[in-house]
C-alpha cells in the first residue's frame, strides 16, 4: 500500500504566519494538499504526524480542519508537542484515546496495520513515552505479531547530528526501541518534529523523519547544542511510503510548480528501458542534447 505523510503543518489562525511573518503555513499546506491530490496514483491514506497547529488554539484547528477537508483520501492524525489535546478533540474528528487520555490508537482498515503513538508531555516539548503508553503498544503488537505494521510517532527516536535538536537526547525512547527489536513485522517508524528529511535505523526498523510543509530546519552539523533553532525557507515537502509489498520505499516530493526541462520522446523511453547500457547511451546521445 502507499502511505502519504505530511507533518508539522503548524497551521495558524486565518491570516497568521510562522517564523516572524515569513511563512504562510496554511497556504503551504494547501499547496501540498493540491499536489498530493494531483498525483498520478492516489495513496491509500494520508498520515499527518503532529504539530498540526502552531500554538494549539481552537481557531487554528478550525482552520486546519478546513484545509484538510480538501484531501481526497482518508486522513489519520498524530499529536505533536505544539498541539493541545483538548482543542484538537474539540475541533477535529479523532478516534477515542487510550485510557489516560493519550492519543494512541490503531487503524486496521488497510493491508498494513497503522499504530499511532502519543510522544507528548504535559510539561515540556521533548519526547516522552511513559510505562502506560509503552505497555499499550506492547499489547497492540502482541495482538498481531505477523501483520505488517507502521508506527507513527511525532518525536524521532534517534539523534540527528543537528546538535541543538539532539540536546534533549533519546533516552525517553529506549523502551520503544527495545520493543521494536522484538518485532520483525514493524516495517517503518514515521516521525516529524525536526522539519527535515532524515532517516536512520532503530531497533532494526527504518525510522523516517518527514520534512515539514511549513519551515525547514537549517542543516547545520556544526551547530552548538545551545544554539537557537534556526529555520530556512526550503520548499514545503511531503512523502509517499510504499509498505507491505517487499522492501519499504520512500519518495520525497517538494511542493511547488517545477516544470520538466527535457521532454522525453517515446524512442528515448525505449532506450531507457533497454538492458544494454551501450545501446541506451547511444540512443540518448543521438536524441538528447549533451549535458
Ligand atoms: Fe514542528
CATH class of the largest domain: Alpha Beta
What percentage of residues falls in helices of 4 or more residues? 25-40%
Largest beta-sheet characterization:
6 strands, mixed
The appropriate CATH architecture of the largest domain is 4-Layer Sandwich
CATH topology of the largest domain: Purple Acid Phosphatase, chain A, domain 2
Termini separation (Å)? 37 Å
Number of helices in the DSSP assignment: 8
What is the CATH superfamily label of the largest domain? Metallo-dependent phosphatases
Give the distinct bound molecules: fe (ii) ion
Give the structural class: alpha/beta
- Number of domain units: 2
Residue stretches low in confidence (pLDDT < 50, at least 5 long) are: 283-291
Quick take:
With about 290 residues, the chain is of the alpha/beta class.
Chart the SSEs and their pairings:
Layout: E1 2-6, H1 25-37, E2 45-49, H2 58-68, E3 75-78, H3 85-91, E4 105-107, E5 113-116, H4 131-143, E6 149-152, H5 163-166, H6 174-181, E7 186-191, E8 198-202, E9 205-209, E10 216-217, E11 231-232, E12 237-242, E13 249-254, H7 266-273, H8 277-287
Parallel strand pairs: 1-2, 2-3, 5-6, 6-7, 7-9
Antiparallel strand pairs: 1-12, 4-5, 8-9, 10-11, 12-13
Amino acid at each position: 500500500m502507499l502511505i502519504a505523510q505530511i507533518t508539522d503543518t503548524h497551521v495558524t489562525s486565518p491570516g497568521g504566519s510562522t517564523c516572524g511573518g515569513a511563512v504562510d503555513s496554511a497556504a503551504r499546506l494547501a499547496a501540498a494538499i493540491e499536489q498530493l491530490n494531483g498525483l498520478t496514483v492516489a495513496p491509500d491514506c494520508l498520515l499527518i504526524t503532529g504539530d498540526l497547529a502552531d500554538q494549539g488554539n481552537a481557531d487554528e484547528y478550525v482552520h486546519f480542519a478546513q484545509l484538510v477537508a480538501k484531501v481526497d483520501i482518508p486522513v489519520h492524525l498524530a499529536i505533536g508537542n505544539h498541539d493541545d489535546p483538548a482543542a484538537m478533540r474539540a475541533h477535529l474528528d479523532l478516534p477515542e484515546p487510550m485510557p489516560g487520555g493519550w492519543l494512541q490508537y490503531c487503524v486496521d482498515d488497510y493491508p498494513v496495520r497503522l499504530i499511532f503513538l502519543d510522544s507528548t508531555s504535559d510539561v515540556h516539548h521533548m519526547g516522552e513515552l511513559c510505562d502506560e503508553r509503552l505497555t499499550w503498544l506492547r499489547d497492540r503488537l502482541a495482538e498481531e505479531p505477523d501483520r505488517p505494521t507502521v508506527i507513527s510517532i511525532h518525536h524521532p527516536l534517534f539523534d540527528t547530528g543537528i546538535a541543538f535538536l539532539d540536546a534533549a537526547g533519546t533516552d525517553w525512547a529506549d523502551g520503544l526501541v527495545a520493543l521494536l527489536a522484538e518485532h520483525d513485522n514493524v516495517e517503518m517508524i514515521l516521525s516529524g518534529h525536526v522539519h527535515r528529511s532524515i532517516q536512520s535505523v532503530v531497533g532494526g526498523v527504518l525510522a523516517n523523519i518527514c520534512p515539514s510543509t511549513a519551515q525547514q530546519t537549517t542543516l547545520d552539523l556544526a551547530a552548538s547544542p545551545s544554539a537557537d533553532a534556526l529555520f530556512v525557507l526550503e520548499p514545503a515537502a511531503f512523502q509517499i511510503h510504499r509498505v507491505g509489498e517487499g522492501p519499504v520505499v520512500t519518495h520525497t516530493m517538494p511542493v511547488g510548480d517545477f516544470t520538466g526541462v527535457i521532454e522525453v520522446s517515446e524512442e528515448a523511453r525505449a532506450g531507457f528501458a533497454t538492458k544494454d547500457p551501450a545501446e541506451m547511451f547511444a540512443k540518448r546521445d543521438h536524441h538528447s542534447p549533451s549535458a
